[in-house]
Amino acid sequence: GQMVASLTRGRKKYEAYSDNTKQCMERLADMIPLFMELSAEDASAYSGYMKAAAMPRETESEIALRTEAMQNAIWNSADIPYKTLIACSDTLQAIESLYGKSNRTCVGDLAAGAMELSSAARIAWLNVLANLPYFGDHDAAKRLYSEAYDIYQSVIKRASELYAAIEHDLAMKL
User: Fold this and answer.
1) Cβ within 8 Å of residue 116, ≥6 positions away
2) From CA 161, how far away is CA 170, in angstroms rounded?
3) Interatomic CA distance for residues 86 and 83, integer angstroms
4) pLDDT in 10s for each residue of the chain, 174 residues
5) How many CB atoms lie within 10 A of CB 114?
6) CA dist 33 to 28, 29, 30, 128, Å?
7) pTM of this structure
8) Quick count: other Cβ atoms within 10 Å of Cβ 63?
9) How crowded is the C-beta side of 42, counted as CA atoms within 13 Å?
10) Which has fewest Cβ within 10 Å: 60, 66, 128, 129?
């Protein structure tokens, strides 16, 4: 999306969309470091889980400390992919806003970005699903499941719709 916006910015043909293009470039520039941060947090969450799993469990107090550490680690292991779903949705929104308002020779790159975000959302969703069954607070787990599912479904649907629209537009040019 950022490449498409940069190849659109400053072109007279797309001058009417310059504010949208500028906003998209700014939003997308923030997303790259966010995804990198989320990736690092995900690795840290796994490390935290492994540390918690290795904690001693000989006494009742050790078991209680380990259980609490495990629950925190499990929650983090589900919450970070949830945040990734939100980032996928936000990034897709920026890409969607470029469609029809950007350099037409790059439209396939918008479709590629949408499909990459769809894939990222699918993996994030699976990570939410993999961790929630082990979280002790079932009400919180159900809430996170519901919110994550809605975002996941929205990203998949919107990415597919954008891809289909772009594919149709390109095919019509044949």
Assistant:
1) none
2) 14
3) 5
4) 878 877 778 888 878 877 877 888 889 999 999 999 999 999 999 999 999 999 999 999 999 999 999 999 999 999 999 999 999 999 999 999 999 888 888 899 999 999 999 999 999 999 999 999 999 999 999 999 999 999 999 999 999 999 999 999 999 988
5) 26
6) 10, 8, 6, 22
7) 0.91
8) 13
9) 18
10) 60
Query: For tokens 């975002």, what's the residue?
Result: 151
Report the sign of the C-alpha dihedral through residues 120, 123, 85, 157, in that order.
positive
DSSP letters, 35-91, are: HHHHHHHHHHHHHHHHHHHTS--SSHHHHHHHHHHHHHHHHHHHHHHHHHHHHHHHH
